[in-house]
Amino acid sequence: MWNPATGQQQAEVCFAEPEDLDAAVAAASAAFEQWSQTSLSARTKVLFAFRDLLDRHLEELAGIVCDEHGKVISDARGEVQRGLEVVEFACGIPQLLKGEYSDQVSTGVDVFSYRQPLGVVAGITPFNFPAMVPMWMYPIAIACGNTFVLKPSERDPSASARVAELWAEAGLPDGVFNVVNGDKVAVDAVLDHPGIAAVSFVGSTPIARYVHDRASAAGKRVQALGGAKNHAVVLPDADLDFASDHLVAAAFGSAGERCMAVSAAVAVGTAAEDLLGLVVDKASAVRVGPGRDESSEMGPVVTREAKARIAGIIERAPAEGARLALDGRGLVVKGHEDGFFVGPTVVDDVRTDMEVYREEIFGPVLSVLRAGSADEAVALVNRNPYGNGTAVFTSSGEAARRFHRGVRVGMIGVNVPIPVPMAYYSFGGWKDSLFGERRVHGPEGVAFYTRAKVVTARWPAPRAETGASYHFPTAT
Ligand code: NAD
Predict the structure, then answer these.
(1) What pLDDT score was predicted for residue 282?
(2) pLDDT band at 476, cuts 50/70/90?
(3) Whose CA is nearest to atom 34 of ligand 1?
């Protein structure tokens, strides 16, 4: 693994072979027998202890994320905090697992339902949120009584290794939370393994589709979250100073390596010229530097290959008719000349058929498009194959309502550029941004990691007068 700010290798990770996964699944299966029978209050106690440890080790985890991913330390703290909030949600598991009860559905008959864990479940996660995205999954899965096998990104797996130690310290029994490192070999072994009941995946769209299809074919429950191209639509009545501040932060925060990053700004009508000027000025002023420097606002991208890929897309944009309003390719960070830095880049006059728009660049590149009206902007958003997040900037409640009702996107911000739902709502996009029925965390997370039973029950009174030709068994 590399430190993206220095360009130097800092650690090595051993990739698992299928036998290593077998061992993890065997440990998780054995642990499931006991963990699934552990009382709700005992499970909750472990979750509260884990929550406390995460809180106390937040700075340490943020440092690990910063050094391996490259994002700035303030952003890394935010990521751990948002993951911790899922743990807090999972601490309420006794409330979340309450079933339903119907009295007297027929004479002397009652019906009730409750949910049980699935067994061993797996998570496969991307590089861009090495702490938070796994935390979308395992706190809820484990709270529900499952045991978990995590295959983190091979580019920044250290946060997951540290989390495993914290779980142990919190009192989680061995085998309930397992980490298997690796690449495609480990992923394929997870998808095919008969001992794994469900797979949660977050990553790029081609791999999400592959994971969904292969794991579904193997009979598993699957939720597979994919990539994104998130549009921010700026209407002429928006406060352009406010909108441009938020656009720039949402496009260049974490070097654009967020699945909810704004990568396309759609300026409607007269908003365009003033907005572009403000965005370019503010993007030029973003402080780019190593993540450990508290004054940095944006760090490097994750790998040398990512830097080269992003630079290639920027280079090819003018040939298709786009205009580089701000070109970040030449940026050099003093003292970090070997780091994987790309400066904020703004590409104007972008059309939807261009590579810079079609590709999920996953770097600090903002495309600016134009639309004649709000309805035209909604149609543009809806033609995009992705449907993860979008935002509208406006001072009109009516326009905002029309926008959020009209877009075919899962998560929508109104004057909020990165509308990541809180832990007690569920996270997930539409179209090519999510394969499978269930979104992650929140109520849908609980539903994903459990299955329901409905019991129809009759308890006849003993037939005292006949000596009972038959007796319904009674509890002792
Ligand atoms: P990725 O798809 O390359 O990797 C994700 C996981 O899949 C990793 O664990 C990796 O080891 C594994 N993988 C990679 N190639 C594989 C293959 N050929 N076969 C089997 N497994 C494979 O994604 P990434 O580059 O790590 O992360 C960035 C992507 O994740 C972006 O597309 C981003 O939009 C997406 N993402 C989406 C969300 C969301 O909520 N929708 C959140 C975060 C990231």
Answers:
(1) 98
(2) very low
(3) 227
Say if residue 69 is in the same domain as residue 149.
Answer: yes
Its domain, for residue 135, covers: 2-226+433-454
Residues 198 and 296 in one domain: no
Among candidate residues 66, 91, 144, 259, the one labeled active-site is: 259
Rounded to the nearest angstrom, the distance between the alpha carbon of 225 and the centre of ligand 1 is 9
Could you tell me if residue 220 is inside a domain?
yes
Atom of ligand 1 lying closest to residue 434 CA:
41
**435 pLDDT exceeds 90?**
yes
Mean pLDDT, the chain, whole residue set: 96
When pLDDT is averaged across residues 263-268 and rounded to a whole number, the result is 98
- Is 397 among the domain residues? yes
State mean pLDDT over 298-324.
98
Which residue do the tokens 């656009």 mark? 247
Residues 265 and 344 in one domain: yes
Section 410-427 average pLDDT: 98
Please give the pLDDT value at position 175. Answer: 98
**Of 65, 469, 51, 48, which Cα lies nearest the Cα of 302?**
65
Q: Is residue 84 domain-shared with residue 187, that is, in the same domain? A: yes
pLDDT digits (tens, 9 = 90+) for 170-190: 999 999 999 999 999 999 999
Whether residues 43 and 98 fall in one domain:
yes
79, amino acid identity? E
Residues with CB under 6 A from ligand 1: 124-129, 133, 151, 153-154, 183-184, 187, 202-204, 207, 225-228, 259, 360, 362, 388, 429, 433
Please identify, by atom number, the ligand 1 atom nearest to the C-alpha of residue 127. Answer: 26
Tally of structural domains, the chain = 2
Q: Which mutation among 204, 254, 409 tests ligand 1's pocket best, with the greatest number of atoms within 8 A of CB?
A: 204
Looking at the chain, the whole-number percentage of residues with pLDDT higher than 90 is 96
How many whole angstroms from 206 Cα to the centroid of ligand 1?
A: 9
> What kind and span of H or E run contains 93?
helix 93-96
Quick one: 25 and 155 in the same domain? Answer: yes
Long-range interactions of 354-357: CB distance < 8 A, separation 24+? 354/317, 354/320, 354/321, 354/322, 355/313, 355/316, 355/317, 355/320, 356/313, 356/314, 356/316, 356/317, 356/320, 356/322, 357/229, 357/264
Residue 475 pLDDT exceeds 80 = no
Annotation marks residue 259 as catalytic: yes
Contact 139, 87 (CB under 8 A): yes
Task: Find the DSSP H helices in 201-325.
Answer: 205-217, 240-252, 271-284, 304-316
Taking the CA of residue 429 as reference, the ligand 1 atom at the shortest distance is 41
Domain presence at residue 460 = no
Band (pLDDT 50/70/90 cuts) for residue 474 is very low
